[in-house]
Amino acid sequence: MFYFRTVSVNPLLPERIHRLRELSRNLWFSWNQQARELFKDIDPRLWEQVGHNPVKLLLQVRREDLDRASLDGTYLSKYDAVMSEFDKYMSEEKWLQRLHPQYKKHVIAYFSAEFGLHESCPVYSGGLGVLAGDHAKSASDLGLPLVGVGLMYRHGYFNQRIDRDGWQQAIYPDLNFNEMPVMPVVGASGLETTVAVEYPGRTVFARVWEVKVGLNRIFLLDSDLPLNLKEDRKITGQLYGGGSKNRIAQEIMLGVGGVRALKAIGIIPSVWHINEGHAAFLTLERMREMVSAGIPASTARDAVRSNTVFTTHTPVPAGHDVFDRSIAERYLQELCRDTGMECEAFIEQGWDVQQGEFNMTLLAMRMTGYCNGVSKLHGEVSRHMFHRFYPGLSVEEVPITSVTNGVHADTWIAETWKNVFERYLGQGWAEPGNAGDILNQLNEIPDREIWEVHNCLKNAMVQFVREKLREQKYQHRETPEAMAEVDNALIPGALTIGFARRFATYKRATLIFSEQDRLASILNNPDRPVQIIFAGKAHPADRSGMELIRCILDYAQQEHFRGKVVFLEDYDINVARNLVHGVDIWLNTPVWPMEASGTSGMKAAMNGVLHCSVLDGWWPEGYNGKNGFSIGRPGDMQFNRSDQDRDDTRNLYRVLEELVIPLYYERQDNVPTRWVAMMRESIRMAIEHFSTARMVSEYTERLYIPAIDRGIAFMESGLEVAEQTGRFKKFMQENWHHVRVDQVATNGKWNMEAGEELELESVVKLGPISPGSVTVEITFGDDRGGYLDHLKTRPMDLQGQVGEGAYRFMGRLPLGQGTFGYTVRVRPDYQDRVAMFDTPLVRWADSF
Fold first, then answer.
1. Cα–Cα dist 756/475, whole Å
2. Of 72, 68, 90, 75, whose CA–CA distance to 23 is shortest?
3. Which of 28, 259, 732, 838 could be bridged to 833 by S-S, CB 3.0 to 4.6 A?
4. Which tens digit of pLDDT belongs to each residue from 421-448?
5. The pTM is what?
């Protein structure tokens, strides 16, 4: 192979429409239909050929087509309107400036292994990346100054092809970055910005690319440079590809290289957000920077924790990257050199003693001050998962909160629906804070209009699916007769179920086929037909996931399922968009509680597609009995997989046969009025509670602003606060063994009257610890027969010293009606803690 350089030669745009190039390189177009139409209208066929990529279109469009557009009065009116809207968007005051103006210049650095923004920028695999993309879009909408940091994968994730035997084949495209809405970052010197990262025995360089997302930017690192070794050029070759060595190399580039990229560009974040554990090494690089500036390692660690947020996304063990100690030591040795911390000590931050492995999720949890799951249930599940690392705490006090995911409404709601909403609800129907009041006006939209809009989108979806099936059959070189079958695939008027997501075994894509004869009877009912559309990719190393795809394709070929069960290849943002707009039911059947959130159902719900799901992920928060369907009841943490499969199968068929199908086919003047009522409630619920506008505003007020304030407090004190925090924690850890709840006296009896007051008096031995450095408290909650649930606390007052290192405390607790348990405990307490158990030490009363 020989060296060469690449140049992209763009056509000279007519002056009247010269800003098309600017528009093509800002992903704002991805959530503005009129902006996309400016490119589509120039050459509709080319627009489809280039995969809705405006940069590629401008590279290939004919000059005469550009000239024609520049002279077309109708086109120019649309162009002027779009550019005026774009300029207004880029300059107007937004939510953050109105509600929190003092934070408008504080940058949030959001690190993620993938960003799913649009099909023209295919460096994502699925839900995690699309969530990151939606996060960035809503941050821009809200005026939150956010910069994304990720990797620029030469081969993306992979393109999915199904061979004639039904097996998934992974095709790795060579992405041409010059034909994507990205640009290399160029410094003041006129040279492209690069960063250098140390790896075992060598240094690896990475170019930095920029993606504009409205007001914000995402920076992506690319190691495919000629000055790197061949193996190092592959570090950013493929998303989630390669073995352990390549994965840790990627995560070092993301975390360490990402911090260095921001520094090279001149960006100083106030908050660092780690989106899943892949980017946890950013904490290592931030420590190195501080120690190099003369800050002690222990102080640097607390300073890093002070303004770093971590979001964990999965309760599935395979979703947490882990490495052998030997690999971790080899790759981190050089990077730890200037951190003031021995490599072994840093590895201990992520070391799981029980499993004997270095866990990136655990590293992120221990090196950040704020941690959250992505739904209320997932927060609870995560607290159970990681409770073993906090042995003194109750499960519910494990320091993991939750911020439920959302989706970007402007990206995922069909344009037809937006037009209807604007006509009936007015402008600003999706604005944060406005949604609840405005969406109550949904009742003003006539049932028939809602149904007609849905059927219009459904018909378009059916045509899209047929075209995809036609392409698949053409690639397989099937007979003309087989090609003709596509015209009869799917009945536009039939109840259509969509199941599109990553094909991991816990998602149970084939659960609906558990009783094939029963399903065949459901699908082939001549009066009430039903059909199912499947789409999704399995990781190339997941043989079990690929087997699920093959099974579905086998079912689809059986006579009683032919034309009624279809599978679409190469699931991506474009396929997802068409499906969530047009199916009737969005089916979700994960093993409870393995679904952390499940944002595809939110996208469907915003379009009036009813969600039918196990009560997992976001659905326990969303389901109210009037906006979709639940499969079974809430699960139990002590679930049995085989029992769950049996129960969920029975409940799935019951819901379909007794609720979904009858309701869909119940008509009044050809309109299923009760179904439409559920659609209306689904739309209201999803837009009001499950948008990324709500999600990002919640992150801002609950996590980002506290992290900014804490970081400022640390820095304004010259890191004296961090030093004091470090000293306090060290002192507590070294002396906590002295702490004991020695005596507890109480007036509590087995039966007491409501309104009485429970009194407790306790002698607590603290040794060298001062009583002002701890909180002694009555801890009480619901008695669950072995543990207390829904814990509450009431502080006890210091009464005086009763001996060397021993103190008497007293507390009172007014009694409400019911049965509860109570005890006394001691925990560290200091002014600058992030959370109650920032220092996870606690001592409980043994017995009294």
1. 79
2. 90
3. 838
4. 999 988 878 776 666 667 778 999 999 9
5. 0.95
